[in-house]
Amino acid sequence: MTRTCWIIFLFCLPEFSFAGKAPLKVVDLTCEYKMAPLGIDCPQPRLGWKYEWEPMPDSPKIQSAYQVLVASSPALLEEGKADVWNSGRVQGNVHTNIYYKGKALTSGARYYWKVRIWDGRNSVSNWSKRSYWAMGLLASGDWKAEWVTDSKTAVTQDSLLFQDNPAPLFRKDFTAVREVRRAMLYITGVGYYQATVNGKKIGDHFLDPGWTDYRKTIPYNTFDVTETVKKGRNCLGVELGNGWYNPLPLRMWGSLDIRKFLAVGAPGLVARLEIVYVDGSRQAVVSDRSWKVTDGPLRRNNNYIGSTYDDRYAIPGWDLPGFNDGQWRKVTVTTGPGGALVAQQHPPVRAGEMIPATDIRRIGTGKYLVDMGRNFAGIVRLTASGKKGTRIRLRYAELLNPDGSLNVMTSVAGQIKRKGAGGPGAPDVAWQQDDLILGDRGVVFEPAFTFHGFRYVEIDGYPGELTGDMIRGIPLSSDVRPVGGIALSDSLFSRIQKISIHTFLSNLFSVQSDCPHREKLGYGGDIVATSEAFMANFDMHDFYAKTVRDFADDAQPDGALPETAPYIGISDEGVTRTAGPIGWGTALPMLLKQLYQYYGDSALIAKYYPKAKGWVDFLHAHADGFIINKGIGDHESLDPKQLEVTGTAFLYYNTQLLQQLALILGLGEEADHYGRLAQQVKDAFIKKFYDPATGAVGIHTQATQSFALYFHLLPPGGEEKALKMLVEQIHAKNDHVSTGIFGTKYMLEVLSGHGLGDLACKIALQKDFPGWGNMLEKGATTLWEHWEYSDNIYSHNHPMFGSISGWFYKYLAGIRPAEDAAGYDKIVLQPGGFGQIPGAVAQYASPQGTVMSGWVKDKNTVHYKAIVPENTSAVILLPDRAPIHVGPGFHRYDIVLPQSQD
Question: Is the pLDDT of residue 6 over 80?
């Protein structure tokens, strides 16, 4: 992009326009961080809003007071009759995390609300547009429904689980006796479920309800099905998939059977359909013994190795009212997996924009190789018709072999690549595969209850000619809302940002995974490395709140936290046999702090503080003189790893995090206690690892130096020497990265934070090995697990090196929350990279309002602009200037660079 184009882009695009909106307009009303949510099951939900304003220099404070009205009907609300809650005029500028304080809320009820505010001149706004929230089922007794499952004998023998085990279809006919005012469906199924009413799919979700430890927590969904339930006969249908509740006994890595660690059983469901008639009377349709079940056409389904759909077994009309189910089986009533039913608050998995094939190549009779153009996670849509009984096989992969054939080896489940490695009945090579068997009609095939990570699809047995309109890619991902936007003037950085986003979305399936094919597991280390990058780009509050709960659910009695959550039996290099490694368990206390810092959520801290405390106490109980000498360390580092340096640094970090959480909760004595412990860890670290003569930390790699600098584990005056040693180590690698999962994030941020942003840029801009540019040069469309190209082992869709995206926001465009921020109310604006790229601009939709920061270089002058939202303060950090403390509004500065940086 030319300098002229960049200036126009920065200062003239509407989204970065400094022309404001109309003042005193309240918008974006939220309940529990969602707009107009269904299924709120907390008795005191938190309300919030934003406002549009015109940030002129003399603008009055945008909110000095507020008033909330909540009513039981739209008519009452419009009349100003708040029969549920009238907050009255409440002084203050708080507009997030405002607890509802009205009458007791009722299960299944819908509440309507609006808000108005007063500004600093006591001018009052108009009322906001009306919003609402709908309650879920607040108590287990409100369900009045039973868990049901198939009555046929469940398959339990390992080898037989790999054979056909059809997904069950459940149905229930019912009659709505009057005209329907509202119908709400509360439902969940384990492992996965898909519901229909009168043959119509309910909702646009995939892979509901999301993966948890079903012995502890089972999310349920709430759907408004008013438009689907009609007076007269109706049918509620449900298909169940195996998901994570009935996984195959694959011996991952040749030994680990996840069935031995998860809650497992035959798929089951629980449902309640609540109908309210126009006359106010009610009717409930619930799962119970009256339901019927039979085998469906989905003969196999598994998260890892895919599905088999046989259209010869399709049952037309099975989920329509009046269908003859006389030959169907009765259901069996069960107790379910045992976990508490909770309304699903994390974002559901939804489909993104379909991806057309970029190339279709015939490689044999009925055999094609399809290139979707980029790596992603999801499924395909394949249109096919042909002779009854024709089997069409689809295999998926990230790569091609040198001869152009499909290379499945980087996406094989659990590295199962030889006969017998996967256990009895398992395939010799556990690649991703879906089979479609044709019936006597044409079909549009979308594999159900599975998902894959792939770029290429090999299709074998396809009847006729496969053309582009016959196949599409369907990307799937947890539907996290974009909140960040960034434009970088350097094309390489722009490409890195693009593939980072593709990688992130490929690894959000109710857990943040390491890869969407080989493992699909919620590793804590990847979260620790990339959470801020995810949060810079997406609203991650609800997703990460679930992550915290997942780790808490799998905490051990002694306080140990797992390596993955949900826990599947991996405990690699923890301080005890069942504990996760220290950097991976760090996810729980770190997310608690970040969810407060970014979103102001203190309720999560109050709820899960005991788990964080148990973890930190556990770590100290197993430390040796405040030193932790076990762990995985800086995973995938090219340099040697010094586990005791990284382990002890994480001990300090966890202890410090707990001190901060205690302070947020007002637990002064505990904060003091953990503050003293943190200092003792720091003293021990300095004594054991720091060389005051040279500034070396341990074996003085890029990672050991960066860990010490990032966590401030150095004595007074030691940072300059340690930084110098880090720079020497970088130059020794010809200004290339040699760090791993954590060190990469820490090094880039340490350099930029210490005024060496140009060096950080230089590292990130390298196009040869090792680096992001090398990945792109070799055709990457998502980020790799390993710096070096791999065609056999390492994943090509791995988020951990995506921490660079967070660095783009924080230190190039220059937007981040302050360390002591609560809901982004304190902001640090620190643009950089002036000597390496022509410009950068970003915006971030924080809970307080949109933050904008951008700059463009014209010769040796940098023109910088920023917008700070109302109710916040910011510090602007520019080179060779004292920190500039500012309030809401526009801010503009010109920075004259030394001539050498032109």
Answer: no
